[in-house]
Amino acid sequence: MAMQRMGTNRAIASAALVSAALAVGAAPAIAQEMEFLAIGSDGGDGLEQVTSVSQLSDVQPTDWAFQALQSLVERYGCIAGYPDGTFRGNRALTRYEFAAGLNACLAKVEELISTASADLATKADLQTLQRLQEEFAAELATLRGRVDALEARASELEANQFSTTTKLEGNVIFSLHGGTLEGSDREQIAFGQRTRLLFNTSFSGEDLLVTRLESNTVQSPLSDVTGLGGLSYGDGEDTSFGLTFLGYSFPLGDRLSAIVGATGLDIDDTHPVHNNFLYGDGSGALSAFGDRNPVLRQPADAGFGLMWDLSDTVNVNVGYYAGNAASPNLGNGLFNGSYSANVSVNYTSSSGRLGAGLFYSHSYYSRKDFGGDEEIGLMGGVGTSATLDPFGGRSVISDNVGFQANYLISDRFGINGWFGYTHARNASDRDQHLDATTWAVALTFPDLFKEGSFGALMVGQPPAVVDARGAREDDERPFHVEALYRFALNDNVSITPGAIAVFNAEEDETAVIGVLRTEFAF
Structurally, what CATH architecture does the domain formed by 166-521 represent? Predict the structure, then answer.
C-alpha cells in the first residue's frame, strides 16, 4: 500500500504541476498543426496507449529523458504514442496536448482513488505540493505576465491591422545621374526619384491581386542619344501618384496558372527573362538595355498570360497584350490597336543554376496609338534612332525572336547573355522592311565583398538596323558597356554606383553616363 500511495502521490504532484502550467495560459501554438492529440490511457483519436517505452521507435536508451518517459509509460500510464509508433519528443507542445496530458493523468488519479484501500495523501504530501507551488511562484508569475503581454499585443495587431487580405509594400529610388556626349557641349546632371506603393491582395492564399501606385521624375540624362541613354527605372516627369499596374494572377490547376491585367501588364510578367541579378526594374541594371533582352519589349499594357509547367524544369508560356486596350476609338482597343502575341519555352535546372528560354512575338504597332510626333519605338525604344520610327510614321508589323540564358558557375560568379532578331515591315507597304539585331553578355558577381551585394559588368549591342529596304540602315552599330556595384547596407537599403559608355551612339560619337542610385524597400 505504501508503494501504491507513493505512486498516487507522484501522479497527484504531476497533475498539479501540469494544471499550474495550463492555468498560467500556455501560449497556443498558432502556427502549428491544429490536431488533437489524446495522449491518454486509451490513446483516443487514433493514438494507442503504450505499455513499454520500447514501443516508441524514436526514443532511445541514450536519450536524456529516457528514464522519465519509462517511468511515465510503465508505472503511471500517462503517455501514449502516435499511430506510427513515435513519440516526437522534439516538437513543441500545444495547448491541446497539454489538455490531453492533464486529462490522462487525472484519469489515472481517479483510477487509483477508486481502487485504493488506504489514505492516498498525507499531510507531508500536501506540504510538499505547497512547497513546490511556493518555489515556482516567481517563474509562474513571469510566464503569466509574458503570456498576458503577448495576448494584448496580438489583440492590438488584430484590431489595427491594415487588412486581413492585403499587404502593403513599397520602394523608393533616389537617383543622381549625369551624362555627356562627345562633340556636344550639353552636359546634364539631374536628381530624380521613383516611388512605388504596392498593395498585394490574396483571397485564397494562392492568388494575388497587385495594385501599384507610382510617382516618377527620373529622366534620361542624355536625350541626344535617343533610346540608348534610358535608365531602367526612369520614364517620368510628374511627382503626382498614378495607377501604373493592376493585375491578378491565379492558379488554374496544379501546373497551370494565369495572369490578367487591366493596366501596366508587360511581357516579363508572363515570360522569364533569364537575366539574373541585372533584371529588376530598378534594382538590377542601371540601363533599360541592360535590364532584359529588348525583344521582350513589345506593345503591352493590358491583356492576359498563361504559364504551364510541363515538368519541374520546363514550362511553356503564352500571352496576348494590347497597347491601348481601354480606348474604344477606331484603331484602338483590345484587338484593333497595337498588340503583341507571344510564346516562350523555358528551362530551369533543378539546382536553379542554369536557365534558358526561347521567345517569339508577333507584334503590331498602330500609328493611331502614337499621336502627334510620338515615335513608335521598336523593342521599347531602347535602340538607335533608325529603330524608333523606321517607316516615317506608318504602322509597323514585326516578328521577333529572342534567346536568353543564364548560368551560375559558382556561388560567387555567373554569366548571362541574350540574342535578339527582329524583322519589321511597313504595314501598308510590304516592300518596305528591315532587319534589326541585338545581343549582350554579362558577368555577375553575387555577394561581392558583402552578402546581399553584387557586382556586374556587361557588354553588348543595343538594337540596330543591320539591313533595310525603304528604311534607314545603321552604318555603325552601337556598343554598350556597363559596370555597377550594388552595395547592400542592409535588407532594406542599398547604394549602387555605376557607369555606362555607349560607343557609336550618334554619328560615331561616344556617350558616357554616371549614376548613383539609392534604393529603399519597405
Answer: Beta Barrel (2.40)
